[in-house]
Amino acid sequence: MNKSWNITSFESSFNLFLSILGLNQVDESACIVINYILILIFLNMNKENASKLWKLIQETGDFLKGKLPDHPNHPKGRNPYAHVALEVKNHFGMTYKDIPDDKFNDVTDYLEILKSNPE
Question: Which of 1, 24, 29 is nearest to 14 (CA)?
Fold first, then answer.
């Protein structure tokens, strides 16, 4: 199930944000912030890909069970699932659900890197 959107709905939302805030397109810094917010709203991963990716994150966590090195902050052992989710968030700068669909393959490639380099 893909999100249904187009450039017209994006532009309409952008102009709505500007009018609500009492701004115009000359306010460059405000336009940058609004564009970023709308990109996050419109371009984040669809539910189907997010679900597939969550399953792959869980499988990567399963694979890393008992393979992560000890850490003084985790005397009872490290949680491989939290580790994988945090590594994805740190690497891509957002949670797996917020990553755009066009980066899906990049995330799956990164999960393979995590499997081969437990740290």
Answer: 24
Domain of 13 in residue numbering reads as 7-43
One domain, residues 83 and 112: yes
Q: Are residues 59 and 85 in the same domain?
A: yes
Q: What is the pLDDT of residue 114?
A: 96
Q: Which two tokens stand for residue 44?
A: 């984040």
pTM of this prediction?
0.64
The count of domains in the chain is 2
pLDDT at 10: 58
Site of tokens 């991963």: 45
Query: What is the block-wise mean pLDDT of the chain (119 residues), using blocks of 10 residues?
Result: 49 70 69 69 76 93 93 89 93 86 91 92
